[in-house]
UniProtKB/TrEMBL annotation:
UniProt subcellular location: Mitochondrion inner membrane; Mitochondrion matrix, Mitochondrion nucleoid
SUPFAM superfamilies: P-loop containing nucleoside triphosphate hydrolases
Reaction equations catalysed: ATP + H2O = ADP + phosphate + H(+)
Function statement: Mitochondrial helicase involved in mtDNA replication and repair. Might have a role in mtDNA repair. Has DNA strand separation activity needed to form a processive replication fork for leading strand synthesis which is catalyzed by the formation of a replisome complex with POLG and mtSDB. Preferentially unwinds DNA substrates with pre-existing 5'-and 3'- single-stranded tails but is also active on a 5'- flap substrate. Can dissociate the invading strand of immobile or mobile D-loop DNA structures irrespective of the single strand polarity of the third strand.
PANTHER family associated with the record: T7-LIKE MITOCHONDRIAL DNA HELICASE (PTHR12873), TWINKLE MTDNA HELICASE (PTHR12873:SF0)
Positions of the UniProt region annotated as Disordered: 26-55
GO molecular function list: 5'-3' DNA helicase activity; ATP binding; hydrolase activity; lipid binding; single-stranded DNA binding
Protein name, as recorded: Twinkle mtDNA helicase
Organism: Zosterops borbonicus
Enzyme Commission number, as recorded: 5.6.2.3
Entry membrane topology: Peripheral membrane protein
Location (main, coarse): mitochondrion
Alphabetical keyword list: ATP-binding, DNA replication, Helicase, Hydrolase, Isomerase, Lipid-binding, Membrane, Mitochondrion, Mitochondrion inner membrane, Mitochondrion nucleoid, Nucleotide-binding, Transit peptide
Length: 668
């Protein structure tokens, strides 16, 4: 029986008509395309703030200097600075007491703060403004959220309460047979009723879903829910999540109310059922991240500051291992240990079901950092892991471009892909679908579109996502926009020429805040104009390519960089040497993709995708593409695809000699 990872969650609003009689605020209908929906536009993808905006970055040195200058006591934590809160206790013009509880946490990377006592949060500029108010004898005021966000959270709490009241504890189901069948369906037959009761897990009969509550750490009120249901397709089981509020606002560290103040060790998991299994099998403090292995929101870091040791056991595949290493950087490497996935170390729930010694697995966790590698001994386990998990090492597979999988094998972190093609061939349209395919599988993606604006890009991607012309079916817009909004997709607000340092700083911010693992830059030429005029353009391009190469390696992030080709004869096919600039771009790249557009006199041209460099395993080749104007989609030709792998030069030369031929061979 094959298990498929959790699919990205969505707002659980589709369940509400059944449970709450369809009542919603503002008269909104929950049925896709129902009357009244067209007036309710909620399509607002997250965009990264422009560095030219009103919120400049701040360094940890500047934060410390400011706190000392204002006589605010603080001490260093792992990810945050700890200070007494401005929003509790004495609010006069007297200095904050060092004896007061240190309940306000300032993120060392961004300067954002959170008060765990009052849940007040805001930017570094908000913190400074409240300090100034306090010095003038004015009571600090927590930064207010927008009315729209407040209304959305209020509605989510109301809807969550409606569902929660109708959900039942599994052990209170009248039919014992139903209880056993339900537990077996979710793979929790070994999880006791006492464990389910301790974590407050319930079951919603009407939706056949487990219900996991989100209680406020401040007053234990219900803030939201996550529902998990099972879908079966043959021998494959897929777990589908839905959340209230919607996924990007769902920030629940499941199990947090059960953590004691004296707990200093924690196991962090990527799934609520794994947290249950860990507590039952090993009696350890365990929490589940709200978005699994895709994202660790920085706003949750203050709640993890009390722990001196954190073990990350996020899953059983290579993707969870990569995520664990990424999250360990954010949590501070020196206190983190990682459980390496393997046959004898599956995810916690599976370990419980197999009767494995969970405590022994936790003790064997590897330190997240070490000073140096002195021999093969430190590497042998990682090498073995790659040999065992060959398919996972090759990366995330494309679902829309299976022929690309045959060549590149998959999309891997830490690589640099160069993409080029003739003007007007559809480079942006293709690469948007290429990135969308990965994003739909949970790859957190950042788009930097300097050539076309974000509205037009989002329209292209939404059309590709829906697979139809929404202009002709506006009644379906909200249904598809709501689904599209749940993707882990972000946009930079740049347009036109930009400085490379500004772009890199924004990418660095995105990796920290949103755990971005794929960055698309369209295109390199738009960063050339801001370099020093006195610098040779080729040298400037080499510097930019080198900066992206270093960023990809240092942040374990895949960068797809679009570069225009040189001006060449339209009748000639592009080659790796056709990429504009020096040879550094193709040398630094792990992969080189070329969109070939073969013009025909008698009709429209035929487009092909050529892989001309593949550092992973050397397979290169070319395959045809078909373009659907209605869905703006490139799909591999449905006819027999003649996938041509280019052989090594010696092999080609040998074939020519055998055939008695000489001179240049035809291009595939």
């Amino acid at each position: 029986m094959a298990l498929v990872p959790l699919r990205p969650g969505r707002a659980a609003s589709r369940l509400l008509p059944l449970l709450c009689g369809g009542a919603r605020s503002k008269g909104a209908s929950l049925s896709p395309g129902a009357p009244g929906r067209l007036g309710q536009r909620r399509y607002k993808k997250d965009v990264l703030p422009s560095p030219d905006g009103p919120a400049p970055s701040v360094s940890i040195t500047e934060i410390r200097q400011y706190l000392r200058a204002q006589d605010i006591p603080f001490h260093d934590g792992y990810s945050c600075l700890h200070t007494p809160s401005l929003f509790v206790g004495d609010r006069g013009d007297q200095p904050l007491s060092a004896n007061a509880p240190f309940t306000l946490f300032i993120d060392k990377t961004t300067g954002s703060f959170l008060c765990t006592a009052t849940l007040a949060e805001g930017t570094w500029q908000d913190f400074q403004a409240n300090v100034e108010m306090r010095l003038r004898g004015i009571s600090p005021i927590p930064p207010a959220k927008s009315e729209e966000m407040e209304e959305e959270m209020r509605q989510a709490r109301e809807d969550a309460r409606c569902i929660w009241e109708r959900a039942l504890p599994l052990w209170e189901l009248l039919d014992e047979k139903e209880t056993k069948e339900t537990k077996a369906l979710f793979g929790i037959s070994q999880v006791t009723n006492a464990t389910l009761k301790r974590f407050g897990v319930r079951y919603l009969r009407t939706a056949r879903s487990l219900v996991f509550p989100w209680f406020s750490p401040q007053d234990a009120t219900l803030k939201g829910l996550k529902l998990v249901r099972v879908e079966k397709n043959g021998g494959t089981i897929t777990y589908v999540e839905e959340t209230l509020p919607r996924f990007d606002s769902y920030l629940n560290l499941f199990g947090l109310p059960l953590i004691g103040r004296r707990d200093t060790e924690l196991v962090l998991t990527g799934w609520e059922l794994d947290a249950l299994a860990l507590h039952q099998a090993a009696g350890v403090a365990s929490l589940a991240l709200p978005r699994g292995t895709s994202y660790l929101p920085p706003t949750l870091l203050p709640y993890l500051e009390q722990f001196k040791r954190i073990t990350l056991w996020l899953g059983e595949d290579l993707r969870s291992w990569e995520a664990a290493k990424l999250f360990a950087r954010k949590l501070s490497l020196k206190r983190c240990s990682l459980v390496r996935p393997g046959n004898l170390q599956p995810r916690p729930l599976e370990a419980l079901n197999q009767g494995l010694n969970v405590t022994k697995i936790l003790r064997s966790a590897l330190l997240a950092s070490h000073k140096s590698i002195v021999s093969f001994r430190q590497l042998r386990e990682e090498v073995f892991g790659e040999l065992v998990n060959t398919e996972q090492v090759s990366g995330v597979k494309w679902t829309r471009f299976p022929e690309l999988n045959k060549l590149l094998k998959g999309h891997r972190r830490g690589e640099l892909t160069i993409f080029t093609g003739p003007t007007g061939s559809g480079k942006t349209t293709f690469i948007s679908e290429y990135a969308l395919d990965l994003c739909m599988q949970g790859v957190c993606t950042l788009w930097g579109s300097f050539e076309i604006n974000n509205v037009r890009l989002a329209k292209i991607m939404l059309t590709q996502f829906a697979g139809r012309r929404l202009e002709d079916q506006l009644e379906l817009y909200d249904e598809w926009a709501d689904r599209f909004e749940e993707l882990p997709l972000y946009f930079m607000t740049f347009h036109g020429q930009q400085n490379i340092k500004t772009v890199i700083d924004t990418m660095q911010h995105a990796v920290y805040m949103y755990d971005i693992t794929h960055v698309v830059v369209d295109n390199l030429q738009f960063m050339m104009g801001h370099e020093h005029i006195s610098v040779d353009r080729l040298a400037a391009q080499d510097y930019i390519v080198g900066a992206f190469r270093k960023f990809a390696t240092d942040n374990t992030c895949h960068i797809t960089l679009i570069i225009h080709p040189r001006k060449e004869d339209d009748e000639k096919e592009l080659q790796t040497a056709s990429i504009f600039g020096s040879a550094k771009a193709s040398q630094e790249a792990d992969n080189v993709l070329i969109l070939q557009d073969r013009k025909l006199v008698t009709g429209p041209g035929k487009r092909y995708l050529q892989v001309s460099k593949n550092r992973f395993d050397g397979d290169v080749g070319i395959f045809p593409l078909e373009f659907s104007k209605a869905s703006l989609s490139f799909s591999s030709s449905k006819s027999k695809v003649r996938l041509k792998k280019v052989k090594e030069e010696k092999e080609i030369l040998a074939n020519k000699i055998v055939e008695g031929g000489s001179g240049a061979s035809k291009k595939p």
